[in-house]
Amino acid sequence: MAEIKDNYSADNIQVLEGLEAVRKRPAMYIGDIGFKGLHHLVWEVVDNSIDEAMAGYCTDIFIEINPDNSVTVSDNGRGIPTGMHTKEGRSALEVVMTVLHAGGKFDKDTYKVSGGLHGVGVSCVNALSSMLLVTVEREGKIFQQEYSKGAPLYPVKEVGKSDKTGTKVHFLPDDTIFTENIFKYETVANRMRELSYLNRGITIHFTDLREVDAEGKSETEVFHSEGGLSEFVAYLDSTRDQLLPEPIYMEGDKGGIPVEVAMTYNNSYNENVFSYVNNINTIEGGTHVSGFRRALTRTLKNYADKSGILDKEKIEISGDDFREGLTAVISVKVQEPQFEGQTKTKLGNSDVMGAVETCVADILSTYLEEHPREAKTIVSKVILAAKARIAARKAREMVQRKNVLSGSGLPGKLADCSDNDPVVCELYLVEGDSAGGSAKQGRNRAFQAILPLRGKILNVEKAQEHKIYDNEEIRNIITALGVTFGTVEDEKALNMVKLRYHKVIIMTDADVDGSHIRTLILTFFFRYMKDLIDNGFVYIAQPPLYLVKKGKEERYCWTEEQREKAVKEIAKEGKEDSVNIQRYKGLGEMNPEQLWQTTMNPEFRTLKRVSIESAAEADHLFSMLMGDEVAPRRDFIERNAKYARIDI
Ligand code: 0RA
Known about the structure:
Oligomer: single chain
Largest sheet: 9 strands, mixed
Bound molecules: 3-[3-(1H-pyrrolo[2,3-b]pyridin-5-yl)phenyl]propanoic acid
């Protein structure tokens, strides 16, 4: 008896030390302690329910964001086992919730893969929560245990009877750990949509209880996909014109590696290949993507060679040409994934390459044989792409050659800074020549460079690549940045070795035109210089919306709340109508000194860093906002109208 008890306390101390390590260095476990890390907690808990669903024991997952910003995730799976864990001397449930990496230990037969970036285990979430309550329905009973910062408040207890089964985890992130504690609806919804496509058949119910209607009710958004990846690519491409009647779907299992791919072609010029390993987006690609590319090139080239179409055209086809207008999603499940690369989102396992390549080559060649009309459509698109690629190469070379010829190689409109250490240098892309003038006068010329942009830059979403180099504004941006295109591996890849600024700041007016120009610039960066965004070099300036003034006292305001507060404070004796409120619509309404003070001076300004939360969502959004179809854009604007400011 005494021995068991001693063991218990010894184990307990070890457990608490483990969780203490998580609390000491949370970023090691969940990436960061800001917005991303906060949401990571939800992904971690949902992952466990998804695993249970993938094992075939759970059909429905429920996610609720509660009014206090706690989150509840529940499922109708088997329920985490609650019996005594003989080796640990306490309930298995307690072990799962408090021991690092204890997730799937009890159930070796179940197919379970570790999530790499995720997969740190629910115990990490527990350690980083000021409160966590787990409820398990199993074997006719309801069990509960509650924790604070990962430490159990009492042993697992039976609290009632139930004829259902399932697990419910309710947690409140510890606000002494996280710098952000507000969950974002869209972020969670986007991830749930993605998960429902990646795991077809599961139903995910998502409710934000912070938002209630007049009757106090909240809407539930339901994510469910029967078609899985085929529906995913259809969703991604929903605002683009399709070349195939429906996506090509491929599924197989090679050497114990489940492979799933869906692909389609549209009439755009972009390649959109999204890849996942164990439901995690591998932004940097890896062996599964290489396997897919090899199979695609080999199979399509074989087919084109055999069909004789290429001989007629006398054109050299490269790998890129097979991927213009391609939208594809690749999803593999790997038992022990090796993640490499800068953001640890590049799959390294070499056997996965062959698995994907064989699987795709087999199924795609059969598809081409059985669908001659679609096959011909694809080959024609590939030939067009090859011709456009040759035109684009010439255009790119022109831009780069012009650089060399014109001495400094910098655009005439650029007011450069004197410092030349890119790490400290900033480039402001400013809407209009007049605001550009103010910015030039107001700036600190040591490290701030100004490039005024005239009017609207080209919408690259609708233009073929060689056309974008005809656009002067785009050429100016490229040359000012000092970047070039083309590496040994990929002639289109961005080469940032000579990047001249580590902050590229978009500064536009706070009106409809301003946001349009901002979106056009971001679209260009997203499609042609994504590395610039991924490296965190792209920012948006935040000019103030109001100047509240009385006599000598002046306050700049960025929000309605700030304006109201400023009016109250400045009025002092309550005489608010003597107070003067100026609404800034354009940057040009500020003089150089004001622009410097409010928007450019690093000591006082706020900059928003542009990041891509989900590449799939960003692609969908840009193609919709900048594409041809009006209806989805109108829907989007109407749905988001409540977030928009009204410009008076
Ligand atoms: C281990 C074993 C068994 C279920 C689970 C874990 C499980 C974990 C989570 C986490 C969230 N929801 C979950 N549902 C189940 C099953 C053991 C058995 O009944 O044979």
